[in-house]
Every structure is written in C-alpha cells, then in structure tokens.
Design brief:
The complex is a heterodimer of chains A (343) and B (539). Chain A has 343 residues and is mainly alpha-helical. Chain A has 13 helices and no strands. By secondary structure, chain B is α+β, with helices and mostly antiparallel strands. Chain B contains 17 helices and 27 strands. Chain B has a seven-stranded mixed sheet, covered by helices on one side. A five-stranded antiparallel sheet of chain B has the order 1-6-7-9-8, covered by helices on one side. Chain B has a three-stranded antiparallel sheet with strand order 2-25-26, with no helix packed on it. Chain B is globular and about 75 Å long. Classes of the chains: A mainly alpha (343), B alpha+beta (539). The interface between A and B is large, with 57 and 64 residues.
Chain lengths: 343, 539
C-alpha cells in the first residue's frame, strides 16, 4: 500500500503508467494469439494449397498446385513464413484471405460490425433480463427466488445451437412472429440476440441476485428503508448499484463469451459476421483470415477488459484510495458496499 | 455427300428435345413441368447449404457449389438430352474422320451481359483461360486436356485440334466448369473476375456480399425465346440445415439444397413443399477398396469385406426411402451405366469362409489375425463431403464388418486432412464422390495412369486398380465415336471393375432440392443443378 500511496501523489502519471502496462500486456496477448494460431494451423495435417484449390469433386492439376504454393509463399520454410507473417501483422497488413481472395481487412470491415452489434445488443438484453430476474427473485418471496435461481442456472448452461434451433422452431416455424434467419430487418435480429443473451443473462442474474441479497442484509439498506425509501427505490437506487460491481467485471468476461457464441449463432441464423467467417476460414485452412479474426477478437477483448477495469474504478468510490497501477482486489467485497458511509 | 467422305456430320440436328431446351433458356437437361400460367416478376430466394464458393468464376478451381451458382449466369457450348450431347451455344459440330479435329458452328445471336458479342474468338479465349495454369482450373482443366489448339476459323466457327480422339469432349463441354465467359471480362484480374464473372445466361451477377449472399439480376436481353420471368435471385448461404429448412417452411426462402432425409420425407407432391430429386451425373457414391496397399491387396479379403457389409437396412432407416441402393459404378442418369446386383449380396457366411480360406483366424477379441497382424482397415471420412446420414451408414457398415472379424477404423476428417490422408496412402476404404458428365469418368477413376500421384499427392484412382486390359477398354471407349461400340466397351470395362472387388456401390450422389409449391418451371442442367431461367413465382 505504501507504493500505492506514492502513485496516488504522482497523480496523472500513475494513469499513464497504468495505460502503458495495459498496452504492453495487450501487445503481448496479441503476439501470443498470433503465434498460437500460426502453430495450430501448421500442426493440423493437410496441404493448404489443396484446400485453396479443392472442394468436393475437383482435383487440382500439378501446375495449379505449384502456382498456388508459390503465390501464397507455402513453398518457403515454416520459420520464414512465421517471420514474414509476424512482420506483416506488425505493419498492419493482415494479408489476403485464401478463401475469399479479398483483403482480410476488407472482410473484417464488413463482418465485424455485425458481430459487435450482436454482442452489444446481447449484453444489453442480458442485463435487462438479469435485473428483472434479480428483482423478481429478491422481492417476491421464496418460491420466486427458487424458481429464478433454477432458471438462471439452466439458462447459463444452455448451448447456443440448441436454444437457437428451439427458438426458430417455436417463434419462426410455428408462430411465424419473426423470421427464421436474419434478413437485414430489425425483426431478424430478435432471435439471434435472444439466443446469445440468455446464457449470459443466467450468469449475470445469479451474480446480481447474490449482490442484492447481501446488500439487503446490510445496515445501509435498513437505514434507507427507515428513511422511508420504497422497495423499488431501494432496489433501483441502492441495492442494484451495490450489486452491479461484480456484474461489470462479469460483463467483460460475458463479452468474450458473446463473441465466441457468435461462431454458432451466426451460422444458425445466417448472420454475416466474423463468427461465421471463422468457421469457413478454419475448414478451408484460410490462415490469414483465421489469424485476422483471432487477433481482432483478442484485441476487442483486451480493450473491453481495460474498459471494465476503468469503469469499475470510476463507479467504485473506494478506488479513490487505491489508484490504478497498483494490484488491488479484483472483486467488490460482498457485505460492505459503496454506501458503507451511510452507516 | 462427297464432302462427307472427309468430314462426317455428328449430332447436328436440332430435334424436338433440343428445341425445347432452346426455348427454355437453360443449357440444361430435364424440366419440372407445370401447367399454370407463368407470372412475370418477383425475386426468388435460394438458400444453399453448400460451402460458399471462393470464386464465382467456375473455371477457377471447379467444384459443385460453383456449378450451382454459375448455372444461373453462365452457359455452355453443348447441353445434354438423356445423357446425349445436344446443341446449346454451339448450333452444330462436326468431327473429322481421324477424330482429332472437332469443329463447332456457333449461334450468332448471343451477347454476353457486358455487351460483348459471343463469337469464335470468345470460345478460343475461354478454352485458353481454362488451360492457362495461372487460372488454377482443376475440373475444367482435366475436361479439356485433349485440346492442343483452338482456332477461330471465322466469326462463328471454331476448330479444335486434339492430341487424341476424345469422344467425351462433347459431353465435357456441357459442364459449367468450361462454360463461356465474356473475353473482355476475363481480361480483368482474377480477383475482379472472381467477384463478378460475365456470362450469357438468364441472370447476371450484380453483387457478392462475402459470407452472406450473391445478388443476381435478370438478363432481359437473353437469347432464349422467352425472357427470364423472375426479376432476380437472392442467393443466400445458410450452413445450418435446421434453420435452412425452417426458413423454407416459413416462406422466408423459396428453394433450398442439401435437404436432409427427414425433411425430404415430409415433402409431398401435393403439399406446400416439393422435392426435386436430381442425382448427379458421373460416378455413384461408392466405397473404394485400396487394392494397392495393406490387407486389401488380397482380392479374397476385399470380397469378404463386400460380402460382410450390410447396407440395405441402413439405407432404408437412415435415408427414409429417399435414396435408392445402387449396384453400379456410374450414376443412374448415365446412359452407359451397368449394374450387377448379384455381386453385392450381404452374406456373412461367405465373408467368413473367404477369410478362413485366406488364413485369417478369429482372435481373442473377435477380430481376425494372421501372422500376428490384426485384420484392421482404415476408413477416412470427409465430414465436408458426407452428410450425417451417410456417416451413420458407415458406422453401421463398421458394425457389420466387426461381426465377420474385420475391424474398421473410421476417421472423420476435414477436407484438407482427408486429402492428406489419401495422398499419404493412409486408407484402405474411402468414399470419394466424383461429378463429371459422361461415362468417361471411369477413365479418370480407374485407369492405371490415375494411380501416379500429381506433385500435389492427389490421385483419382483410389481403388488403385492396375489392369492393362481395363486401361485398353477405357482408352478405346474414349476414342471411338460409334455409340454402340462405345456402349459395349464401357459395359465390358464396368464388368471388369465390379468383378475386381475394389468397389462397393451405395447409391447415386444424392442431390435433393426442396422448393415451395409457389415456384414453377425449375429446370435442371447437365450437372443436375437447378436453373431458374424460366422459373416463376406465384405468391
């Protein structure tokens, strides 16, 4: 803590240091991701040249294979390929996709907004569901609590492909309320967003509920009630704020889960995002596209974690005492809340 | 008639069937008939479960997903009627007596959708494009291998000089992988041409949003007697089979491919969802037993495997009556196909006897052994090329082989790994679909020359059949233009292949499409892809 106080006196320089550390960590993560992707693709047996030319019912001629090997540099030693690959990434060149014969950056430019929209809408819907569930479970007696808890746990382990198919069969095929697959309209987003939101909402609801229950037992809640605060007011103004902190940390994790969930959900609902492109890229051994998607996802995750860290520090007044740059607790304590001062 | 002593006229007559095709506006084969009055307008939505092509120009690479799409915007020199070549963009043709010169007379009323006229120079440019290694054509390249030179003799006459007589060439020219594209468009870079190839077909490519859809717009100036009725086609890629079918059921899409057996079963001729069964030409779906490697070098062991494979109940239960058992190396749509059911009866008794006689004794775990070696066969399965029902069938075959003492090791692999396993000769059994128009596919699959791997490692003769007598039959069949002699030679060749015990036919290459009853007038092409040139929607 002594070191922490010194940083506190240093003021904005502590923030710069924090930023630099985050940046260095981020670059390290990206380098590791790039290396793992490169090695993983090389370890799988199979000739990428044939995958580029191949496909059911077609056999590549010798000339064609040789041409492709040379064109994509597949005839050079693996180490040279690795160095060239890293060098190009470092200079911001993601290369051309084998499968789509288009610059990876162009493809990501088209596909990333779709996946980000899915993830962000999914997160928003998950939070709404989680808050409703937390309210219901903490304010409506024991039966409601048990039921919500059971539902949350079930929701959190529901696989996307199953949920997606069930939602399609019920709401598109049988009831005809929404389109089965995305069609570019707002209605087309309903099922995919709900599909990614439900498992995350399960986790969030459990966490938020725990936080609310803890806060309810604390003195500040009793004090607020005695001041004449309504149930809803207490929940909305005091308990939720207290319970939201672990939820924010969890949201960063959830964002990662939403992006990985996109792999399945985008295929099921035919959304043209990076998750779907990743499936194609992996089957076709499309190294530049796989690497591009992995790096962009990792970068997004790094940014989201940093933002969550920042938000957590800004929301939590106790962060005043412990400036960034100092390794502190990752989790908000459960019993004493941000409103401990009300005591 | 004096001139005819130099050049004999081949199939140059436009018969009634050929006339129908011209009217149709698809250089195709069969037509789904309908008696309602056609309606103009509307956009058809097609949902494909096949892999999204990497290039929309079917000259590049050359696979079935490309053929499906390009059947809407690219047309060919010939078409097929009941398996026989008939005129399409070529009005007529003649073959020289020695079979080494083929002369096409072209239609003179055709224009590419970019305004370039279709003429002899265009045909020459297309043949050169397919043969140029920089194009990286595989399917088209193999189909045109016998052509050494293409010359534009006049504006609408093309003369092809061949290295050998090639009776399959006219059939080959009906495939989209050697279809005609605008020479002006071909001069652009490959990246650009892959995005927006230009043909003469009833539709033109207007946009391709990668990972999502291709937009096709009608070619109002199409040369067919009826202009296309649809305003356009939205071609979507929907990899998930459940959501693809749900989208069809809810009317969000009009046509889907790669329909699963249970979905086909639910379709009926009177309901709102109809089945279009279009078996692919070329080879049937069959298991090839590798006679050049391991335990299957012994013919008796191969024949024991065939006798020990229980197939029919599996096909019935897994495909729910939507697939019919085949006893032929060729597809049922091939006119030269030959079947022999008697070779493929299920008989565990026969299998056990053959193995006993060959010296394979039952070991402690029920698997047979000989000289300390277990009777194990490796079966790599490409998950990209086998539907779930087929993979389950392979598991049932595995179970029935175990009962006679053969251990089958199934290895499910993705496409690249599967190619690698074949190239490394790490297989005893394999199922490798092959689509090519005409019985000449036999030469690609079973000629001993196809055992020699290309530098890529790939070879097409996966049974590794090495029989000079068979090679001779196949070569003579490819060189004769006499239809009855050709049919006779192909029959002898197929008898030889079936008797070798290297092939276990399963069924035709399944190619089912489901469409909503509101869609009328769908036709199929020479390679069994649907063409919507005369289709209309009655919403």
């Amino acid at each position: 803590m002594r070191r922490g106080r010194r940083h506190a006196r240093a003021g904005w320089s502590a923030w710069v240091l924090w930023g630099l550390r985050r940046l260095a960590g981020g670059v390290g993560v990206l380098w590791a991701v790039a290396t793992i992707v490169f090695v993983a693709i090389r370890l799988i047996p199979g000739d990428p040249a044939l995958a580029i030319l191949g496909g059911p019912g077609s056999q590549a001629s010798a000339e064609a294979v040789a041409q492709v090997r040379q064109e994509y540099g597949l005839d050079r030693p693996v180490l040279v390929q690795y160095v060239v690959f890293l060098g190009r990434l470092a200079t911001g060149h993601l290369g051309d996709s084998y499968a789509f014969r288009t610059p990876v950056a162009t493809l990501l430019g088209q596909q990333l907004p779709v996946t980000l929209t899915l993830a962000v809408l999914g997160l928003v819907v998950a939070w709404v569901l989680a808050i409703v569930a937390a309210w219901w479970s903490t304010q409506r007696g024991r039966f409601a609590a048990g039921l919500t808890s059971a539902l949350s746990v079930t929701a959190s382990v529901t696989p996307h492909f199953w949920l997606g198919s069930v939602l399609i069969v019920v709401f598109a095929s049988a009831l005809g309320w929404v389109p089965a697959v995305s069609d570019g309209t707002a209605r087309g987003w309903v099922l995919p967003v709900v599909t990614v939101a439900v498992p995350v909402a399960g986790y969030l609801a459990e966490t938020v509920r725990d936080g609310v229950v803890d806060a309810q037992r604390s003195a500040f809640a009793l004090a607020a009630r005695s001041r004449g605060e309504t149930r809803a007011g207490l929940f909305g103004r005091h308990l939720l704020r207290h319970a939201a902190l672990p939820g924010i940390a969890l949201s960063a994790w959830a964002f990662g889960s939403l992006v990985s969930g996109a792999v399945v959900v985008e295929s099921v609902f035919a959304l043209p995002g990076i998750g779907r492109a990743l499936v194609t890229a992996v089957t076709q051994r499309d190294m530049p596209l796989v690497a591009g998607i992995a790096l962009v996802s990792a970068a997004a995750y790094v940014v989201v974690l940093a933002v969550a860290d920042l938000v957590e520090r800004l929301v939590d007044p106790r962060a005043e005492a412990t400036r960034p740059g100092v390794r502190t607790r990752r989790r908000a304590p459960r019993v004493t809340g941000p409103e401990a001062g009300a005591r | 008639m004096i001139l005819d002593s130099v050049q004999k006229t081949a199939t140059a007559v436009a018969g009634a069937a050929a006339l129908l095709l011209v009217l149709a506006g698809c250089t195709g084969g069969g037509a789904a008939t309908s008696n309602s009055t056609p309606i103009d307008g509307g956009t058809l939505v097609y949902a494909s479960g096949d892999a999204e092509p990497t290039c929309l120009d079917p000259h590049v690479g050359g696979n079935y997903p490309q053929a499906l799409l390009s059947s809407q915007y690219i047309e060919e020199l010939t078409a097929l009627d009941d398996g026989k070549p008939v005129p399409a963009l070529a009005k007529s043709w003649t073959t020289s007596d020695d079979g080494k010169t083929l002369t096409f007379t072209l239609r003179d009323d055709v224009t590419f959708t970019d305004g370039t006229p279709f003429d002899a120079a265009a045909v020459v440019a297309n043949i050169e494009h397919v043969q140029d290694p920089a194009t990286a054509s595989s399917t088209g390249y193999l189909a045109l291998q016998s052509i050494t030179k293409a010359t534009a003799t006049d504006d609408h006459t093309v003369t092809l000089t061949l290295s050998r007589p090639d009776s399959a060439l006219l059939e080959s020219f009906s495939q989209p992988w050697v279809g005609m594209e605008s020479p002006k468009a071909l001069q652009r870079s490959q990246e650009v041409n892959c995005e927006s190839p230009v043909g003469t077909g009833p539709f033109a490519v207007t946009a391709w949003k990668h990972g999502d859809r291709v937009t096709l717009t009608k070619n109002a100036d199409h040369w067919g007697t009826t202009a296309p009725r649809l305003d356009g086609i939205t071609w979507r890629f929907l990899p998930d089979s459940t959501s693809r079918y749900a989208a069809l059921q809810s009317g969000q899409v009009d046509v889907i491919d790669n329909a699963q057996p249970d979905q086909l079963k639910a379709a009926s001729s009177k309901g709102s969802i109809r089945d279009l069964d279009a078996p692919r030409p070329g080879a049937s779906n069959r298991l090839e037993l590798n006679s050049g490697h391991g335990v299957f070098r012994d013919e008796a062991v191969r024949k024991a495997f065939i006798a020990g494979a229980e197939i029919d109940p599996g096909i019935r239960s897994l495909f729910l009556g939507t697939a019919k058992r085949s006893y032929s190396v060729l597809s049922s749509v091939e006119p030269y196909g030959y079947s022999d059911k008697s070779l493929f009866g299920y008989s565990p008794t026969k299998a056990k006897r053959l193995l006993d006689d060959a010296g394979w004794k039952v070991g402690s775990d029920g698997i047979r052994e000989k000289d300390g070696q277990q009777l194990t066969v490796t079966f790599p399965v490409s998950t990209n090329q086998s539907v779930p029902a087929e993979r389950s069938l392979f598991q049932q075959i595995q179970a029935s082989e175990k009962a006679v003492g053969i251990k089958v090791v199934l290895k499910e692999l993705d496409l690249s790994s599967w190619y690698a396993a074949l190239a490394a000769n790490q297989y005893d059994v394999v199922s490798a679909p092959y689509t090519k128009v005409g019985a000449d596919v036999l030469r690609i699959l079973y000629d001993s020359a196809s055992i020699t791997p290309a530098p890529s490692g790939y070879f097409a003769n996966l049974a590794q059949l090495d029989d000079p007598k068979l090679d001779d039959l196949l070569q003579r069949a490819a060189q004769t233009s006499d239809t009855s002699e050709r049919g006779d030679l192909y029959e002898q060749a197929q008898k030889t292949i079936l008797a070798s015990g290297t092939v276990l036919p399963l069924y035709d290459q399944q190619n089912h499409f489901l469409y909503r009853s509101a869609v009328h007038g769908i036709q199929t092409t020479a390679v069994s892809t649907p063409c919507f040139g005369t289709a209309w929607i009655d919403r």
